[in-house]
Amino acid sequence: MKLKTRIVISFFVIILEPLICASVAFWAFSQHQLNVMEEQYGIENASYDSLSNTAEVINSMTDDIAEELRETAKKDTKELENEDYLNRINGRLKEVHSYLLVREGNQIIYYGNENYSSELVKRLPPYASIEDENSEEAIDAQDNDGLYLGGTVQALVKQINFEKPNGTQGSVFIVSSILKTLPQLKALIKNMMISVVVILILTGLGLTWWIYRGVIAPLDKLRTATQKIKDGDLDFSITPEGVSEISDLCQDFEEMRQRLKETSEEKVQFDKESKELISNISHDLKTPITAIKGYVEGIMDGVANTPEKMDKYIHTIYNKANDMDRLINQLTFYTKMDTNRIPYTFNKISVTEFFNDCAEEIGMELESKGVEFNYSNYVGPEVLVIADAEQIKRVINNITSNSLKYMDSTRARRINLRVKDVGDFIQVEIEDNGKGISAKDLPNIFERFYRTDASRNSSKGGSGIGLSIVKKIMEDHGGKVWATSKENIGTVMYFVLRKYQEVYQ
């Protein structure tokens, strides 16, 4: 028998066998409890409603006692003051979760339950004389179903009115709690719980034995392989064998082993890249820290003895601190990018206003570094995009920083920013006149930690993740980024964003 067939059979056994057995057990136990109720309480034709409707059952069980009290009220009202008689009646009522209250005038003269509710007493119906026996209150209180008191009381009340020879009016009340559960219903629930547990245990044991005998033996090889993986040994292979299902499982297990091995190798590579990142960041941090220490020591030693020198030292310290802040922010962003937790805030942005502001900020920074900056905007003022302004600024800053890093300081440096309208997209171009990138390196520059020239990068510093961050941000915006370059002439970085368009219906 195939494993699939065994599982199908097991499924139907698990579903149907407990269901059928539980249904039979419920029918048998409920019939038994209904018979007990008929014999114990004298209920004719007891049904399933009798088990769940406590109020209906208790009401019917107090009918005889209520009728007896009515006869007593008509024939001999003195009995209603006889404590022995009342105790005897109250004892019978206790068996069905009920008790007596006797009221003469406005005073309760007999309490069948010491824990009666004062709220109950306040809500007891008033006396209804024979002349008023057709009143609504009298009909409700003396109806066969009694009077239901809800709220915090939750009781069923039957009222028997009487009038003594001296004219004193009174009422006998049969108070029945409807919150009590019949013993028969408790017994049924208990028996059903025990039955269900026994049925499930027997079903589980039977299926366990059946599946164990037909499936476990072929899985020993997989168990051995699992132990090897647990011990960190991934250099082995599993040959599919056995029935078709077990063979498929072996094949899947082998694919899993291969994937685990690839993941392990990727982790080694990731650890290597992380160490490289830390090394690069450390290198970049060390340079501004050394400079800051040097200029601070110069101030402390009095080297900056003129306002001009002091201003220069402080300005340099400020710039180096900004460099450190930028590096730390880049490292933090890299961590978020690596765990897909970049905090985007997308909004509708005016292309013209946004890039005008960016150009102003970049122009001031580049001017302070002696770099010529040109900005051209060919997009209409009405064009909008959906983007995160902060992250798009990060893209532009990363690209310009990368351009500055590899520009030849021996000649005039220049960066051009152009914004163009290209149909459904706006295209941003950032051009520099740096050393350029070779054709073999150009397709890989957006890969994480890729180095076009290890020695040059080492001398220039850099975390090696700036352009990979650019690529990630643009992909998350639904755009793309690419580059063209000519060695010793310069590089042009491009990225595009889709325009925002209103959808009319």
Q: What's the quaternary structure here?
A: single chain
**SS content category:** alpha+beta
> What fraction of residues sit in β-strands?
15-25%
Described by strand count, sense and barrel closure, the largest sheet is: 5 strands, antiparallel
The H/E string reads HHHHHEEHHEEEHHHHEHEEHEEHHEE
How would you sum up the global shape? elongated
Tell me the helix content: 40-55%
Write the layout of secondary structure elements.
Blueprint: H1 3-41, H2 48-52, H3 54-61, H4 63-75, H5 83-94, E1 98-104, E2 107-111, H6 118-123, H7 136-142, E3 147-149, E4 155-163, E5 169-177, H8 183-216, H9 220-230, H10 244-300, H11 307-338, E6 347-350, H12 351-368, E7 372-377, E8 384-387, H13 389-405, E9 414-422, E10 425-432, H14 454-460, H15 466-476, E11 480-486, E12 490-498
Parallel strand pairs: 7-9
Antiparallel strand pairs: 1-2, 1-5, 3-4, 4-5, 6-8, 9-10, 10-12, 11-12
Helix pairs in contact: 1-8, 10-11, 13-15
Structure report:
By secondary structure, the chain is α+β, with helices and mostly antiparallel strands. The chain is built from 15 helices and twelve strands. Strands 2-1-5-4-3 form a five-stranded antiparallel beta sheet. A five-stranded mixed beta sheet has the order 7-9-10-12-11, with helices on one face. A two-stranded antiparallel ribbon has the order 6-8. It is elongated and about 130 Å long.
